Amino acid sequence: MVVKRMEEIQSQSDLYRSSSSSASSPTSRVPSSHFFYVRKPGSLRQPISFEDSPEWEDTPDVDSRMEDGGGGGGDSINYATTTTPISPSLSKMNSGSMASSPPPVPEGGGAAVVVRKIAGASIAWKDLTVTMKGKRKYSDKVVKSSNGYAFPGTMTVIMGPAKSGKSTLLRALAGRLPPSAKMYGEVFVNGSKSHMPYGSYGFVERETQLIGSLTVREFLYYSALLQLPGFLFQKRSVVEDAIQAMSLSDYANKLIGGHCYMKGLRSGERRRVSIARELVMRPHILFIDEPLYHLDSVSALLMMVTLKKLASMGCTLVFTIYQSSTEVFGLFDRICLLSNGNTLFFGETLACLQHFSNAGFPCPIMQSPSDHFLRAINTDFDRIIAMCKNWQDDNGDFSAVNMDTTVAIRTLEATYKSSADADSVEAMISNLTEREGTLLKSKGQAGAATSVAVLTWRSLLVMSREWEYYWLRLILYMILTLSISTLYSGLGHSLSSVATRVAAVFVFVSFASLLGIAGIPSLLKEIKIYRSEASNHHSGAFVFLLGQFLGSIPFLFLMSISSSLVFYFMVGLRDDFSLLVYFVLNFFMCLLVNEGLMLSIACIWRDVYWSTLTLVSVHVIMMLSSGHFRIRNALPKPVWTYPFAYISFHTYSIEGLLENEYLGEVFAVGEVRSISGYQAIQGNYQISPDTNSKWRNMLVLLAMAFGYRLLVYVLLRFGLNKNVSGRLLLSHKNNNSSR
Predict the structure, then answer these.
(1) What phi and psi, each to the nearest 5 degrees, are found at residue 149?
(2) Of the candidates 233, 241, 219, the residue with the CA atom closest to the CA atom of residue 69
(3) Ranges for the ABC transporter domain (predicted)?
(4) How far apart are CA 491 and CA 368, in angstroms?
(5) What's the CA gap between 498 and 665, in Å, rounded?
(6) Which tens digits make up the pLDDT trace of 174-221?
(7) Residue 143 forms beta bridges with which residues?
(8) Helix (H, G, I), strand (E, B) or coil at 456
(9) Which of 7, 9, 20, 8 is nearest to 312 (CA)?
(10) Based on the number of CB atoms within 10 Å of its own CB, is 248 exposed (0-12), middle (13-18) or buried (19 or more)?
(11) What pLDDT sits at residue 53?
(12) What is the pLDDT of residues 640-687, one digit of tens each?
């Protein structure tokens, strides 16, 4: 498998290593295949510096025009029409030239692959500043007066140490800042200040929740159904395009998380699936937060080669990265280097090396450029140097950067502000914002009815495959029911068995509800999936709750009817079909209410431990106030009667089941006298003599089931999970107020 992956990387890397072309300098670009410099004899012990005048071999022009595949109806690539001057730091080294068009996409398996192009869009930001209270120790400014741009067909990386403002800058460009953040400055898309509408861009979080019980193709297809309007065959085609673009053809029919003893996808493939989910919209601009997060070196290289292939199709890629290998670094087109919110450099990757050399920090010959950059600007290294000072004195310098990192950051920042590179960036931003280009349009969205149907069907499919959370839960219910039924079997219908029969119903309802806590992990996973999809407007709180509710009905009804039948006949309740139907429906409503209660508590805590602890406490209180241990009329009025007894669904379920069993029943007392079932149960449990009371209890249970889900809707929509549209609107208002 490793050999296969390395061959795949090598076949694609050969095409893209020499084609790290930039739309900002389409006619002259230093080929990244010559990233390893040709050193002069006798200079191997010296650090690399552009002042050594490396000898670059001439590179012939590469005809990299993309041909339309079969005359298909793909979108055409929109490149920037503005001619960009060559980076001042590289102008003296450019002896070769590259064509402005992206390289051809490699064909797999010898068969002709139809490449559907993507219409990219340019993005530029000017004097962008983001403030958050309490985010920084000495200042609220997380990003400080940042300038930059990105073009179609290129990869622009935002690099820096931890807490340098990388993700905040990326979210500011995408309009994803939290409500507590304020943004100042301007962001232009195709020269216009208008915000990006739905479907025009994609955003991939650092950690994306996937559905492990679905295959890659199924997961992307359901995502396409949620995101796109139109016909089914059109969505199948975009799914196949996304699979092809992210090199997932070999994994398309494999379960993401595995099944039973089968292993799922590795972290690299999972990361590419999360990116492919955004590609089904064919976005003009794709923002990715840490695409190499938790990836090994092989997976990281394959990921970046795949993204390079995606960029060559015309998409504008902007992403953050903490650190990269030399091979990965050579694939970047531009780099935005941040430290503590300050921009230390923006420009082409090779020009960044020249910038460090000019500032007095040339990159050592055997060190990765990204390692060298982070070593120079990461203040955490100062503590390491202080700890290793004695060892350093005995064994030589610990690093090529001997200056204090704070001084190094100031030097690099001052050097960049006074350099021709900064002037070139400002000139390019001015050229991009002189005139407004094509406005991005919304691509439409699937209707609410379609989204509900898709989520319902997806939930049913997931439940049928998640044996750990659903089928094992059903087995546990059957074991519990058999245990209770055998314990209370053979009670008979005499007056002396009333108290024991009441206890059997109480134990069955209470313990079955308590056992439902086993479904907390699955509910937390569903909430995480919703948050991931809602962040990109793939679904809303209402459609999520309705789809989850409809999808859970068959599973809960299966548990209720199987458990009810076993308990009803083994304990020996009244032999009447109508009474049996009510028993099943009552227990089904009880499970439905319990599911809503678990969902609401899971939304509040979003943690397995605290959700489980809270649910156990709530169920214990409900059991104590349900009227079995002490009749409701005898309960203390404050707290136990109001509100515990009236909000306990155990009370209404048990009362309805006992009314179903004893109303209309007659017990003989001696040979002459007889009493009704209502009179027989009065000393053990409080019920109503009205024969319609059991249906009122059923309606109360139904109202509680909807009430808990209404609470979940409020929590998701207005409370703990602010809707993303509000965040986008607030970010847009902050942007307008700063102009």
Answers:
(1) -160, 165
(2) 241
(3) 123-365
(4) 79
(5) 12
(6) 999 988 899 999 999 998 887 788 888 999 998 888 999 999 999 999
(7) 130
(8) helix
(9) 20
(10) buried
(11) 29
(12) 888 888 889 999 999 999 999 999 888 888 777 888 989 889 888 989
- What pLDDT does 469 receive? 77
Which residues does 642 contact at the CB level (< 8 Å), separation at least 6? none
Q: Where are the alpha helices (DSSP H) in 128-283?
A: 166-174, 216-227, 232-245, 267-279
Handedness of CA 220, 302, 308, 353 (dihedral sign): positive
pTM greater than 0.70 (yes/no): yes
Bridge-based pairing state of the strands 123-132 and 141-150 = antiparallel
Highest mean pLDDT among 230-239, 280-289, 661-670: 280-289
Q: In the prediction, which pLDDT does 529 show?
A: 92
Question: Is the CA virtual torsion 607, 610, 616, 621 positive or negative?
Answer: negative
Tokens of 712: 């979940």
Neighbour-count burial for 456-495, b at 16+ CB within 10 Å, e otherwise: bebbbbbbebbeebbeebeeebeebbeebbeebeebeeee
Nearest to 617 by CA among 651, 586, 590, 644: 644
Distance of alpha carbon 468 from its chain centroid, rounded? Answer: 23
DSSP class of residue 108? Answer: S
| Angle separating helix axes 577-605 and 498-515, nearest 10 degrees | 40
Q: Choose among 160, 147, 157: nearest CA to 187.
A: 147
Q: What is the DSSP letter of 469?
A: I
DSSP strand pairing (316-321 vs 141-150): unpaired
Phi, psi dihedral angles at 275 (to 5 degrees)? -75, -40
Pull the structure tokens for residue 362: 């040339």
Residues 416, 413: Cα–Cα separation, whole Å: 5
Peptide bond just before 229 cis, omega within 30 deg: no
Confidence of residue 235 (pLDDT cuts 50, 70, 90): confident
